[in-house]
TrEMBL record:
<feature type="binding site">
    <location>
        <begin position="93"/>
        <end position="98"/>
    </location>
    <ligand>
        <name>acetyl-CoA</name>
    </ligand>
</feature>
<dbReference type="InterPro" id="IPR036527">
    <property type="entry name" value="SCP2_sterol-bd_dom_sf"/>
</dbReference>
<feature type="domain" description="N-acetyltransferase">
    <location>
        <begin position="7"/>
        <end position="156"/>
    </location>
</feature>
<keyword id="KW-0012">Acyltransferase</keyword>
<dbReference type="Pfam" id="PF17668">
    <property type="entry name" value="Acetyltransf_17"/>
</dbReference>
<dbReference type="InterPro" id="IPR016181">
    <property type="entry name" value="Acyl_CoA_acyltransferase"/>
</dbReference>
<feature type="active site" description="Proton donor">
    <location>
        <position position="126"/>
    </location>
</feature>
<dbReference type="Pfam" id="PF13527">
    <property type="entry name" value="Acetyltransf_9"/>
</dbReference>
<comment type="subunit">
    <text>Homohexamer; trimer of dimers.</text>
</comment>
<dbReference type="InterPro" id="IPR051554">
    <property type="entry name" value="Acetyltransferase_Eis"/>
</dbReference>
<dbReference type="Pfam" id="PF13530">
    <property type="entry name" value="SCP2_2"/>
</dbReference>
<feature type="binding site">
    <location>
        <begin position="85"/>
        <end position="87"/>
    </location>
    <ligand>
        <name>acetyl-CoA</name>
    </ligand>
</feature>
<dbReference type="InterPro" id="IPR041380">
    <property type="entry name" value="Acetyltransf_17"/>
</dbReference>
<dbReference type="InterPro" id="IPR022902">
    <property type="entry name" value="NAcTrfase_Eis"/>
</dbReference>
<comment type="similarity">
    <text>Belongs to the acetyltransferase Eis family.</text>
</comment>
<dbReference type="InterPro" id="IPR025559">
    <property type="entry name" value="Eis_dom"/>
</dbReference>
<dbReference type="InterPro" id="IPR000182">
    <property type="entry name" value="GNAT_dom"/>
</dbReference>
């Protein structure tokens, strides 16, 4: 067994990318293909790749990308988005992941990225690095026959236009940008993302059938207010249709657009079940059905995890539910977010500065990170430890300041062939 001290943890580029790609594929049970290497190589100029190398063999992978996160109030906060993390089963329990995380978080802090985010494939891993779950996701299965939507009532889907990939590509990015401007938890989708989503630039993985595309056109303005991408499979049993439909992406900037696009998906001919993943748990989508109980939650899980690195910059970037001040003593074993901070904020903006005043609340960076987007309650999380209410009423004040009227949501789309809850 190789001593972990001689395993090289280093940035990856050039000749190391094939070995890195193979190691990542092994970790995620994805077969190696040269096309995967080409896809990884094409992003090497803008993403940061870290690898753990035992001699010439890659045994650990890690990638981070410069991203933008929408925070409450609508500001875009630069963040480091972490993905494709793996350690070979032959090299676990040697601190390789810890070293890769430490290298990347140090780099993010030095680059001026005040927050890091990731989608955690496994719950127990990232809390020890200061991350906390900051958004949740629900997966729905809709029983079409119980939904009580009559496909003959075309006014329910008025404004929906079925389009080809090129028409979709012209309109969909602008629709998403309008949503991203107001949706806490949303991340940027760049041009390459949209090209992959529409098949113009295939991503890593096996070829997949082209999905179907639709837009919602507002009848008053003529603008696209919503987008829908889905795939379906023709199935029959005893001369009865039993076809499933999988929603890959559904984004709308108005309730009218959201209702029309969902109703269209549920009334597609021959479809008996609609699978609807990656929604905020408080989504209104089931309520657009004739019988909301037709939408059964098949999975409910934490999703985006967040780690505050620069406390004053992160807390100053968002708005708050009430005008108030709060002194937070933040504990952070890695040191990045640690300190005693005076937060003064309200619906119109905020400031956060270091202070010598006594704290109202002592809080671990994991808990503060979970509260940051407004999805959880400080009063609730305090029962788990990691928080000490120094002044009575501080927890209630945190809840009044940090909580948002609607839960944060990070819109996700199914780009690959994996369609199960929690697929990274």
């Amino acid at each position: 067994m190789t001593d972990s001290a001689v395993i090289d943890i280093r940035p990856v580029a050039g000749d190391d990318l094939p070995a890195w790609t193979r190691a990542w594929g092994n970790g995620y049970l994805r077969p190696y293909a040269e096309s995967n290497v080409d896809a990884i190589r094409s992003s090497a100029d803008r993403d940061r790749f870290i690898g753990a190398f035992d001699k010439d063999r890659c045994v650990g992978t890690y990638r981070s990308s410069a991203q933008e996160l929408t925070v409450p109030g609508g500001s875009f906060l630069p963040v480091s988005a972490i993905s494709r993390v793996s350690v070979a089963g032959t090299h676990r329990r040697r601190g390789l992941l810890t070293k890769m995380v430490e290298m990347d978080l140090r780099g993010a802090f030095e680059r001026g990225e005040p927050v890091a985010v990731l989608d955690a494939a496994q719950y127990p891993i990232y809390g020890r690095f200061g991350f906390g779950p900051s958004t949740a996701m629900a997966w729905f299965e809709i029983d079409v026959h119980r939904a009580r939507l009559d496909p003959r009532r075309t006014n329910d889907t008025s404004g929906v236009l079925v389009v080809d990939p090129r028409e979709y590509l012209k309109a969909a990015p602008e629709v998403y940008e309008r949503l991203r401007a107001v949706q806490p938890g949303a991340l940027r989708r760049d041009e390459r993302w949209w090209q992959e989503a529409t098949g113009q630039h295939p991503g890593p993985g096996p070829d997949r059938p082209e999905p179907f595309f639709a837009l919602y056109m507002d009848p008053d303005t003529g603008e696209a207010d919503g987008l829908l991408c889905f795939s379906a499979e023709e199935r029959w049993g005893a001369m009865l249709p039993q076809s499933p439909l999988w929603v890959r992406d559904l984004v709308a900037v108005s309730p009218r657009a959201e209702a029309a696009l969902l109703r269209y998906a549920v009334t597609v001919d021959w479809v008996t079940t609609v699978h609807l993943p990656y929604r905020a748990p408080d989504t209104l989508l089931p309520l657009w059905l004739g019988d909301p109980r037709a939408a059964r939650i098949s999975a409910l899980s934490d999703y985006m995890w967040l780690r505050i690195l620069d406390t004053p910059r992160a807390l100053s970037a968002r708005t708050y539910g009430i005008e108030a001040s709060l002194v937070l003593e933040v504990a952070d074993a890695a040191g990045y977010a640690a300190g005693t901070w005076l937060l003064e904020g309200g619906p119109d903006g905020a400031s956060c500065t270091r202070t010598t005043r006594g704290p109202d609340l002592r809080i671990d960076v994991r808990i503060l990170s979970s509260l940051y987007l407004g999805d959880d309650s400080a009063t609730r999380l305090a029962a788990l430890g990691g928080t000490e209410e120094v002044r009575p009423g501080a927890l209630a004040r945190v809840d009044a300041m940090f909580r948002t009227g609607r839960r944060p949501w990070s819109p996700r789309a199914v780009l690959g062939t994996r369609y199960q809850a929690g697929a990274p």
